Amino acid sequence: MTITRQTGLLPDLFDDLGAPALSVPPVAVPGLTVLRGLATPQDRALLAAVDTVTAGAPFRHLVTPGGYTMSVAMTNCGRLGWVSDRAGYRYDPRDPQTGRPWPAMPDLFTCLALRAADAAGFADFVPDACLINLYEPGAKLSLHQDRDEGDFTAPIVSVSLGLPATFLFGGLKRTDRQMPVPLIHGDVAVWGGPWRLAYHGVRALKAGTHPLLGARRINLTFRKAV
Ligand code: MD3
Ligand code: FE
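# fe (iii) ion complex -> structure
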């Protein structure tokens, strides 16, 4: 597997949405496209939208079915939200903590996800779930697959904000070797096709200070859950 990382700017297809001007077309490889800096022009607006979501559904540390408390704090917006507890993993239309539906998906989120999926060759991606992950130094995500969604033909779009992280992109077997992929503020990654069920994780976040987020990383993951 080769991973080619987008280092230039994006095509000028979406200037109404505030994307950078035309430069180099995005590079897609089987399974992964990294659109470097795609979200940067909208970073403050995205973080304001995250604040709106967390006002209704605060970040919390979920418990795994095995009884471990996750180091990454999570919340959701959209029609469905990903949750974990002693009973298992699932998508739930309600926040178990409040009993209320998850906050609506901000239009800015939906548009960015659609635009990124489109640039990576996945037309008409309409996410119905957005998992928001909050990393503080030391927080990590162990190797796992995302397989609670109903439609594996849809890609997953991820938006990285704040401190840089090292994403580990593995293979279709847990024991396959992993490739480290650095993800920095503003990067939007699209995962799909044959690698949609690849094992992946995030290394423990290193200490640091980001101008907008301080000692934090926020990752938005857009999914089609049903
Ligand atoms: C690659 N989140 O929430 S980005 C997750 O940075 C998750 O917070 C990471 O893994 C983060 O489940 C990684 C998103 C991601 C999601 C699904 C994938 C990458 C993927 C599925 C296959 C390959
Ligand atoms: Fe994942």
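# post-check
The pocket of fe (iii) ion (ligand 2) is lined by residues 144, 146, 200 (CB under 6 Å).
The chain has one domain: 32-223.
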